[in-house]
Design brief:
147 residues, mainly alpha, two-stranded antiparallel sheet, two-stranded parallel sheet, 5 helices, 4 strands, 8% strand, EC 3.2.2.-, Q_salvage
């Protein structure tokens, strides 16, 4: 549990991945059926923030970019580490929201096909497939049990 400006903040990446993978593998059926799958966020690992910066969905300060380029290893709960993860979660929530709104304007209900889990999978695959293009976009490093 982390404290940010006096508020407790928790990241439960491993638990989210278990639920997301169960939902995904079982195609939302049977034991993989979750009516609230859209309440999950992205997993906020190291690759998702990197790809968001690469795609210019988020922008880091020059000070933070310098630390990342130098290979600074953050401690779990460091302000910068939590901000990177938190901003990535918020950015992806906004991406999902705006995508759903765009489809809604076209008269299409895409709630079954657009959520943070699927966006996380898509961005992770993008990062893997575009690794060479992204080699100059640094990612954050942290040693902890949450990744």
């Amino acid at each position: 549990m982390l404290a940010i400006r006096g508020k407790k903040v928790s990241f439960y990446k491993r638990a989210q991945i278990l639920v997301a993978d169960t939902w995904s593998v079982l195609e939302g059926q049977g034991d993989g059926s979750f009516d609230d799958i859209s309440s999950l966020t992205i997993f906020a690992d190291y690759r998702i923030p990197q790809v968001l910066v690469h795609l210019k969905a988020i922008k880091y300060s020059e000070k933070l970019m310098k630390k990342l380029r130098e290979g600074t290893i953050f401690q779990s709960g460091d302000k910068e580490e939590v901000e990177i993860r938190g901003c990535s979660i918020w950015c992806c929530a906004l991406i999902c929201k705006h995508l759903l709104e765009l489809y809604e304007k076209k008269g299409q209900d895409m709630r079954e096909k657009i959520n943070a889990v699927l966006l996380d999978y898509h961005l992770w695959d993008y990062a893997r497939d575009h690794r060479e293009e992204m080699k100059n976009t640094p990612f954050h490093r942290v040693r902890c049990i949450y990744y």
